Every structure is written in structure tokens, then in C-alpha cells.
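Reopening this one. Same input as before:
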Amino acid sequence: MPQLKTYIVEDSPVIRESLIATLEELVPVAVIGTAEDELSAVQWLTRPSNHVDLVIVDIFLKAGSGLGVLRAAHGLLPPRKLVVLSNYATKDMRRKCLDLGADRVFDKSNEIDALIDYCGQLADGHSGNTASGALA
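Same output, byte for byte:
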């Protein structure tokens, strides 16, 4: 199973390191970069030499917003999966994220297992759409 090249945009060092350790231990994920603010993330993601399969974005960042990251990353070539992982995954925020190009939205407090399953599906070559649904 190939490793899923992943970029994480999360401002909390504790959450970021915990997420990296969890994903790399449980699914074939290789985190190849991180950012804690919108500008750094957008600059990295829009650099043509930086290729990833998956971008995991928090909504609230040290500076800027994950919404700005989604806006900038949506439609970039080659395509990559965009996932939001946030404590603020309300129905309205989920819809806004999906409208900005997110493929899925997960709540940090109770959907980490669903995120892990989703990453496993992507690594297996599936679209990741067989899980509980984009608005779940």
C-alpha cells in the first residue's frame, strides 16, 4: 500500500504532533510538511514543486483561516484531497467548507476514527467517499 503524502495545517503544536503520530502509526501516511498559519500554508501549497495527496486543515489558525487555505488550494493541479479537522464542525461550517472545496469535514472531538478510516481508504486507492458522508 503506497504512503499518502500529507500536509497538515494546524496551529496547536500539541494537536499537530499528536495527529502526525497517530496517522503515521495507524495508516500509511507520510506527513511531508506542516503550517500553523494561512499564509505559510498557501505559499507552500501553491509552490509547483510541492506535491501532496492530502491536505488536512484546521479552521482557526495562528493567523488567517483554514477557509482561506481551502479557497487557495481548491482547484490546484495536480488535484489533492482537502479535509477539514476542526472543533468548530457545525452544520453551517461544514457546508461552508464543502462549498470552498473540502472533500470532507471531521470534528476533532469525536471523529478522529472517521478521519483515520478516510485516510486508510485513500491510501487503498479509494475515493474516500464510502464513509459516512461529507456532512456526517
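So the earlier flakiness isn't reproducible anymore. For the record, The mean pLDDT is 91.
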